Amino acid sequence: MIPAAFDYVAPTSLDDALAALAEAGDDAKVLAGGQSLLPILRMRLNAPEKVVDLGRIEALRGVRDGGDHVAIGAMTPYAEVVGDALVREHAGLLAKAVETVADPQIRHRGTVGGALVHADPAGDVGAPVLALDATMVVVGPGGERTVPAAEFFRDLFETAVDDGELLTEIRIPKHTGWGSAYEKFVRVSHQWSIVAVAATVRVEGGSIAEARVGLTNMGSTPLRATAVEQALVGSSASGLADACAAAAEGTNPPSDLNGDADYRRHLATVLTRRAVQKAMEG
Amino acid sequence: MTAVDDRPTTEIGTARRRKEDRRLVTGRTRWTDNIQLPGMLHLAMVRSPFAHAKINGIETAEAKGAPNVIAVMTGHDIADIQGVNITAWPITPDQKSPDHLPMPLERVAHAGEIVAVVVARTAAAARDAAELVDVDYEELPAVLDLKAATTDEVLAHPDLGTNKSAFWQLDSKAGGTGGDIEEAIARAREGGIVIEREYRQQRLIPAFMEPRSTVVDPTGEQVVMWTATQAPHVLRFCIAATTGLPESKIRVIAPDVGGGFGGKLQSTPEEFITLAVARKLGKPCKYTETRSETMVSAHHGRDQWQKLTLTAEKDGTVTGLKVELLADLGAYAALVGGGVPVLGAWMFNAIYKFPAYQFNTTNYYTNKTWVDAYRGAGRPEATYAIERLMDELAAEVGVDPLEIREKNWIKHDEFPFTTVAGMTYDSGNYEAATARAKELFGYDELRAEQKRRRESGDPVQLGIGVSTFTEMCGLAPSRVLGSLNYGAGGWESASIRMLATGTVEVVTGASAHGQGHETAWSQIVADRLGVPFDSVEVLHGDTQIAPKGMDTYGSRSLVVGGEALVRAADKVIEKAKPIAAHLLEASVDDLEFSAGQFTVKGTDKGIGIGDVALATFAAHNYPEGVEPSIDADATFDPVNFSFPHGTHLCAMEVDTETGATRMRKYVCVDDIGNIINPLIVEGQVHGGLVQGIAQALWEGAEYDDQGTLVSGSFVDYTLPTTADTISFVTDHTTSPATSNSLGTKGVGEAGTIASTPAVVNAIVDAVRQFGVDDILMPCTPERVWKAIRSGGGTQDAATTPAQQAHFDEGTPNQDPAAGTTDGVVQ
């Protein structure tokens, strides 16, 4: 597969990247790992005039301790996120979700920032980031702004990152001591999620004190199951089914070869219960 | 028929690592796409997006003007030399076969068909310019569904007047091999058991690792074609038969080829178009497809509806089997094409003693990609049907599925056994394979666990699936093929050249594409001639080096080609004998040959075969009246098929809350006769199992209502990887074949044929308690869950309403047009 010809730039600083984007206008595409973009180009589903590769901007890569939050550079590959001690300790849910992305080769190339801005509803990064109440740092010609995860995902393949802007960092409030689980339902291991549920809970005295639940591929964006979160407060491990029954309420999942919308709604309910149960166990 | 040879061996039976793997695994070898010729041009195909359309015109001017473009051609430009993609097996004299031009001039009959070709200095330039070719299509009504095709309301090829290609029947009463099936059914309806089912063989895509690629060099006296094919000899014949090029002017080379599974036995439009363009321009040309092109244009496999009627006495003794197939050929009759379902005719009765049998297939055209052989070709379909039915019969009678099989199978002391379909099975021992499989499986323990889970209402239920399969391999006795109107023979050839310096060149007409022929053939020759394994070089896949061959498919290479090799080796020994006797000053009658040495009986005089080869090369001293050559050729035409068999046992866990299935244990004990290289056999069995399991669980080619292949990439055509499979337990029992001196039966297809019903039987067994007796393949979690919920099969239950990914209409923010990730990996 051969993509249509395009200009390629690989700036080494954020400023240069923003300048390159500004110069190209809306004919540019950002390459942030390329695990979605390259197939799109090769299958000629898109033919940008310029591709701006962020892969050489060291400042966008890595995880640091931000005090009350863990700050993840947008260009940090999945594999580094999975193995990072800070992420595992303070945002275990994200590590568990990212661990399930595709296959090892893709996890070494693909980046969390790239996945978030691509905003495929079947991607595995959106739901945990949403559930963990992350803050996204977006930089553009006008400077830096922050966007709460709840306002980040606008629609299918559409986020709060506008043309000419870049996502630079994901700040995840520390959920130290919270249990977490990512229940991903697929037919073959490297597949996009048919449905997945991201759950993280704080347990006090055997029952849930706080719960956060995110849903993957249950609508055009990652979703937060807030009704379930509220219902779960005070639940013990034996009483989860009722609290999770409403997991699919208000969702609008797709129908495709892997299952119709009703089946996905059913899955969401079962998987939510299982995810919360596992999260309670750690 | 040859008695099985029992001479001592050292190489045969040794688990040697394959000598070809270093170059194949590293890729530092001659894959077709690696070939670069001076001045070579590159091709890009323009393909129809429509399933059925009239070509009103093709505007090529803009593409011709694009940078580095040399030419843009349509069917009209190569009409005089493009040839025809022929079918080798018209199954009846009146079979309807639409003309299949590599590049049609007037009408396309499936999405993906080629309408124009762009030739440029680079592959990228060709691809860019292909986007500029403007084709004026007039869409025609398309028939996509196989059952809809039978009504002839919409015609795949209006000129044929019908979608029906042919009807073919095998009837045991008419053939004198058994009783009257209708009588058996009538009797069973009165006081016996009648099991009536309809099973679906979904459409599959042979996903060979190396995409197809062709390079043609028209300069020089012969036109040379390198191509990723498993059938170079067949391809040369097809080119000669249809393009006007004399056969003697065509050299076809299959260099290293990365897998085929039947998918590369085709003579393809792409090969013919590359040849035509190269000849028109007088320049070397290359075409390498993308995976997306493979998915729509390389032939697909299976695609049948199977209506089945099995009759039995109340105690489970089978009395009859009636098979009525609808087979979807896709848009054209492919090379084997309509013959693929026919290959199942002798296998539905399998290992069981049916007194009455009838097989019927009616083949239809649709506006989908053409269908041909895919690993097993006809036999997996048959095995699936009968092994599923035997489980249904066991459930009806209320006995263990192994018990119902044992009641009906051919006993080991009944071989050779002529079946109700007229095949004579030479050897086998179903009892032994089954006993060993049960032991390795822990059958009784797993049945006990299944009972416990049922009784406790465990959300995860356990099912056990059985498949006691057989297959017919070693395709094929030429006279049998002739009687079936097949367009060629089934022999195989081998040559052995004894080189002066002591090494040996072996030429085989089989054309390996990943099987390990080079290693196995070397082992056979090393034993037979007593030369070191490393001294044997195996040459294949080039019609100039291996001029005679029928290539590799249908588990034939070792069974047929191996016997040709043995006979060639024996001829070498016979030819060397008088020369050795002359050199030893002894009588030919006093010579013995063992371990590479000719010795004179009762003396210590001897000479190695390598020394005889050198002496023959020098030819200074050899007997009068003998030619100075010990090289030999042999062509072997088998007199019978071989019949591998085995018992496969599979345990599946079914999560009743989600419908997800998980393989718990898989045991297979195959009887493939004598084994040349156990490591190669393991590879064939493991790979075959995964491919068969994939049909049961994962793979399926799905079209939408417009005739677009929805599962057109590996995102939606869900091939498994090692991460999705478990470790299999494999073992063997051995009843040597009596039809060849090595006693081999073939192993290339066994795993694929046997495993599919074992898996589905296990899933159905797990959920039969909920009233389920069938689940459509692939058994997706959604289908399993819906079957449990509806308490029936999914045969009639609605599953996914539309195959194309979509969101419900009328809801905000759910615009499918906004983009889709189909075809995109993360």
UniProtKB/TrEMBL annotation, chain A:
A Pfam family this chain is assigned to: FAD_binding_5
Record has Oxidoreductase as a keyword: yes
Residue intervals of the FAD-binding PCMH-type domain: 1-177
Keywords noted in UniProt: FAD, Flavoprotein, Oxidoreductase
Coiled-coil segments: none
UniProt keyword Oxidoreductase, yes or no: yes
UniProt xrefs under InterPro entries: CO_DH_flav_C, CO_DH_flav_C_dom_sf, Diverse_Substr_Oxidored, FAD-bd_PCMH, FAD-bd_PCMH-like_sf, FAD-bd_PCMH_sub1, FAD-bd_PCMH_sub2, Mopterin_DH_FAD-bd
Domain of life the protein comes from: Bacteria
The protein's name: Xanthine dehydrogenase family protein subunit M
Naturally occurring in which organism (per UniProt): Phycicoccus sonneratiae
From TrEMBL, chain B:
Stretches for region Disordered: 1-23, 790-826
Domain Aldehyde oxidase/xanthine dehydrogenase a/b hammerhead: 26-141
UniProt entry tagged with the keyword Oxidoreductase: yes
Top-rank taxon, per record: Bacteria
Record field: compositional bias (Low complexity): 795-805
A Pfam family of this chain: Ald_Xan_dh_C
Keyword list, A-Z: Molybdenum, Oxidoreductase
InterPro entries xrefs: Ald_Oxase/Xan_DH_a/b, Ald_Oxase/Xan_DH_a/b_sf, Ald_Oxase/xanthine_DH-like, AldOxase/xan_DH_MoCoBD1, AldOxase/xan_DH_MoCoBD2, AldOxase/xan_DH_Mopterin-bd_sf
SUPFAM superfamilies found in the cross-reference section: CO dehydrogenase molybdoprotein N-domain-like, Molybdenum cofactor-binding domain
Protein name in the entry: Xanthine dehydrogenase family protein
Species: Phycicoccus sonneratiae
